[in-house]
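Thread: Modeling a multi-component assembly for a lab meeting

Hi all, long-time lurker, first post. My supervisor asked me to bring a structural picture of a complex we are working on to next week's group meeting, and I have zero experience with this. I have the sequence lines for every component (652 residues in total). Could someone generate the structure of the whole assembly? Inputs are pasted exactly as I received them:
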Amino acid sequence: MSNTHPQGEFELIRDYFQRQSLQRADVHMGIGDDGAVVSVPVDKQLVLVMDTMVAGIHFPLQTSAYDLGWKSLAVNLSDLAAMGAEPAWLTLALTLPHSDAEWVKTFSLGLFALASAYNIQLIGGDTTRGPLSITVQAHGLVEKGGALLRSGAEVGDLIYVSGFPGEAALGLILLQSNLQHHPSYEHLLARLNRPEPRLGLGRSLHDIASACIDISDGLLADLQHILDASGVGAEVLIDGLPLSEDYRAAVDDKQLYRAALSGGDDYELLFTVPKTKQAEIDKIAEDSKCLLTCIGEITEGNTIRCLDAQGNEYTPEHLGFEHFAE
Amino acid sequence: MSNTHPQGEFELIRDYFQRQSLQRADVHMGIGDDGAVVSVPVDKQLVLVMDTMVAGIHFPLQTSAYDLGWKSLAVNLSDLAAMGAEPAWLTLALTLPHSDAEWVKTFSLGLFALASAYNIQLIGGDTTRGPLSITVQAHGLVEKGGALLRSGAEVGDLIYVSGFPGEAALGLILLQSNLQHHPSYEHLLARLNRPEPRLGLGRSLHDIASACIDISDGLLADLQHILDASGVGAEVLIDGLPLSEDYRAAVDDKQLYRAALSGGDDYELLFTVPKTKQAEIDKIAEDSKCLLTCIGEITEGNTIRCLDAQGNEYTPEHLGFEHFAE
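Re: Modeling a multi-component assembly
Sure thing. I ran the full set together rather than chain by chain. Output:
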């Protein structure tokens, strides 16, 4: 046998994932063995989330490698935010049609930009050949018994949403309609490709909110998940929905609420709060400079009623985005 | 809005993954929220492994759903075995071209058969549409500082392998050559499709072996990973390789050693042991009814020399299986 063993392109592109400068003290073995070894603090529980993004299904084929690196982690951190957890580590399963060193390098830069900003270390994963697909598992820590669940909403609780839901869906529409010249294009596309997970907000809410979810399928679809888990219904006041100027500039009046109610990919937090804690929510909004808007109230029943300012029922066209529902 | 919200096929097939009867006491939230919540014992560290299997790359397209469910977990448990860890939980990212309830049901039965046998609970994941691909992350527990790594091999240590390496590769060859009538077909194909992770052996070795890896790429390729991590070389005595009767029945003399040295997908353990611990290895082999064969010795240098019984150097054709190395 020769003195050097063959090193495939496969191993070469893996090297990019070993270049994160961040090294957490609780990581005893990261990339480079059969598995990673980490320590969980004795007063914490471990929270695990996992999301897959497939080319052409979850993102347009022209999405940049940097944005994919960022977003594949961001959607997972958003789940950790919705659980009230503090992120710690991530693993990555990346499947690529062919070994493209430049692509992988750029992807890793997008991933690491977000990971290192939140003190999260990439500790392992798998890189394989096949149709482009990205699965990230993120691991977070939460106080024992302190995870925010979907199941705690009670009749009378107020329903809040962070930020401006619907902007990401409008970004996708502008992109697919080739409306790059639209004055709101840059902002709305950034909302699609570089979502900012609401980690600080999630941590602030973990002992205040009664239920929480992040908006990935659409506001109404995800609200329904809270209702199903909690055994309650909801009234949503559509005139109270927070619609940004960029949002209003990109929609016509006839479809004013559609993206905000049914657009996916926002990664804002949707949560319920007992009325007695309204002042605490106001303070969190002020401290975190994060817009928090009350959009309705939890009711009896198991469905959502959308009402306009006159109290008339409003029927949205569809609840949200569903894979397989062709 | 109607009284019932639409439930896609997507959600329907997800239901199959909620049917595992096993419920571990350390799982506080499993499938059904934004993330799973689990507890790690204070005296343990967490071990994380992740493997992706892509249709047509990692398994032939005709592989049954049951076998894929079994194998996608088995290859991860094999990594946990190689770390000396005891498995606890798994998450699954399943990407399917279309929602096929029967396929998913059968897949879940294969997955749960293996999971429940080792007291492992499926606690989350993601089911998406796209080209068939399966990513499993498995989580195990190990004593603090007790994980078996690749990096501890020292000059003079003995090299052992469990079971009969090469059988899985021969199973694949028989399958691809349409040799279903071959007397060893059933056995060798089972070795390919239903690998038994060496979890008990890994636990027994965790304070005895100096280094350990599981054979996924091929014996020599994986031995090289130990050598790279430990900064040592190795001599392998090819006449000492354990070759089963089924193995011998499926190869010609000219290629006698090829599958054993370079065939992937065996998921046997390859490990090194100080010579002073040889008696302990003999006892483990006896207690566990697992064949453990000494196949060589760690040397100085950084490469592998294969020697026959006469001391002549033997040059294998290739080290192992590499993705992207087309």
